[in-house]
Each structure stands twice: as C-alpha cells, then as structure tokens.
Hints:
By secondary structure, this protein is of the alpha/beta class.
Amino acid sequence: MVLAFGDSLTYGTGASEQEGYPAQLGQMIGRRVVQSGVPGEVTSQALARLPGELDEYSPRLLLLCTGGNDFLHRLGKQQAAANLRAMVRLAKARNIDVVLIGTPEPSLTLSPPSFYGDIAAEFHIPYEGSVIGEVLRKPELKSDPVHPNASGYRIVAERLAVLLRKSGAL
C-alpha cells in the first residue's frame, strides 16, 4: 500500500477526489494509494500527524509532498527542511520507503528550494522536483494560482508513476 501524504496538493484541491494525483496514480500503477492530504497544513503539523497515519495504514511506500504552506506563510525554509528530514527519518525507522516530491516556492520560477534535493540525496531516496512547478506554470493545468486541475494532477501522477518504476519503488 502507498500512502500519499501532504497538504492541499495531495488532497487534490482544485479537482474531484477521483481526479487528484493519488487516485490517478493508483489507477496507473495498479496499487492502492491512500490520499492523506490536509489543505493548509504546514510541515510542523504534518510531522505531528504522520505517526498516526503510519500506524493506521502501515504503508510500504510513503509519497511525501509538503512544504508549500510554510513558504506561503513565510515560516522559514530551515524549519520546513528540518520537519521534512524528521518525517523521512520516521518513515525509514519503520522500514517504509519514501519518495520526496518538491513543492515550489511562490516565485516567478516556481521551483522548490534546494533543500528538497539535499534531503533526497542525504537519505538516498527518489525525488521528483520539477513536475508541480511545470504544471503550475501552465494556466490550462491550474484550478487557481497554487493548485493544479484534474489535467495537471494527471501529469503529476504520470511523472510519479515513471519515477516509481524507474527507481524500483514499485
């Protein structure tokens, strides 16, 4: 079982539940993907929530996509990075594989901060750092300034499916 964990991007804000990336990814990979996204959640709240979700679902794989709300609220990249590292450690301590999905900062480039790549390298985990920014740069793939629509989430799911296969996570 795969646990998609994060904020509104994981929840699928801007699309129906069946059109969010977790549901579309589940269809693509033929696995159960549980959507565990909380709109508006910052990384400190996600870190507090993660142990209960891991207890409840006992996933084999964790898709971790959080941080955007920290950037929107200007809570500081260092704290977001520390919280993400703690979440990866928590999953790894339970022998759960992790795939990290970078969340872009609000800027012209819509790129994730470099700490996402640093964390992925540090823990030797697969990382998808560009797809959300690529989707959000195209008006036809967005439901609002910070969320994809169903077509945008499909692209996210397709990219993750490729990464999961390529990295051996499936």
